[in-house]
Design brief:
The chain has 142 residues and is α+β, with helices and mostly antiparallel strands. 46% of the residues lie in helices and 24% in strands. The protein has helices spanning 5-23, 26-43, 48-76, and strands spanning 91-99, 102-107, 110-116, 128-135, 138-141. It has a 5-stranded mixed beta barrel. A hairpin with a 2-residue loop joins strand 4 (128-135) and strand 5. Helix 2 (26-43) packs antiparallel against helix 3 (48-76). The radius of gyration is 31 Å and the shape is rod-shaped.
């Protein structure tokens, strides 16, 4: 039983597709596409050297292109803030008078103890304030 080279390349492509599915590493998919390109080269009568060159060139080109696109998208993602970092810069509603010694605000749907950034200023209930920082369990506002 003599199997043509293009069949071996397709078997290799399937073999490279298995780790792609199991590990979710896209590099295996790019190698599989390179193997399919080498199978096409073999089917059109390309020699062994041409098949290997097509496999290497297509695989490396795909990895280079996809990696650069992925890096570009990763760098363009907006920063996702969470925890107390997400509360800085938000607006809150004063529930109880807030001054340098304390008070209460409603921030992100929760009631927080608060104090003013400037010890001499104060805010009355119903006013909007901006959260400058979070100091422990106290919001510092202005």
């Amino acid at each position: 039983m003599n199997i043509d080279a293009w069949v071996w390349w397709l078997i290799g492509a399937v073999g490279l597709g298995i780790p792609l599915v199991l590990t979710a590493m896209p590099e295996f998919g790019m190698f599989a596409v390179g193997a399919v390109a080498a199978a096409v080269t073999a089917a059109f009568g390309g020699g062994a050297v041409a098949q290997v060159l097509v496999f290497v060139i297509v695989s490396v080109a795909l990895i280079a292109v996809v990696r650069s696109i992925a890096n570009h998208h990763r760098d363009q993602r907006p920063e996702h803030r969470s925890g107390i970092d997400a509360l800085r810069g938000r607006t809150a509603l004063v529930l109880e008078r807030v001054d340098g010694s304390g008070g209460r605000i409603k921030l992100a749907g929760e009631i927080w103890s608060a104090r003013t950034l400037d010890a001499d200023s104060s805010f009355e209930p119903g006013q909007q304030v901006d959260v400058v920082e979070i100091d422990g369990a106290t919001a510092v506002v202005m």
